[in-house]
Amino acid sequence: MVISLSVVVLLLVLAWIFMRSGGLKFSHALVCALLGFYLASSSMAATIHDGLSATAEVVSGLRP
Q1: Residue 39: CB atoms within 10 Å
Q2: How many CB atoms lie within 10 A of CB 42?
Q3: CA-CA distance, 35 to 32, in Å (whole number)?
Q4: Which structural domain range is residue 40 located in?
Q5: Whose C-alpha in 7, 18, 46, 53 is 20 to 30 A from the C-alpha of 61?
Q6: DSSP annotation of 35
Q7: In terms of domain of life, where is this protein from (predicted)?
């Protein structure tokens, strides 16, 4: 699990650098996709899912 978490952190840093540089090439998109797959299989997946679900619930409850 430690190796998987290290890969997630490395891909997160790479994705952040790619997004900051302003140009998203095919290789950059591939890194972002790999980050998504590693995040989905990591122990953080449940926490991320719960956070996004709670955010979606709050947003859907807003009335303009």
Answers
A1: 15
A2: 16
A3: 5
A4: 2-60
A5: 46
A6: H
A7: Bacteria
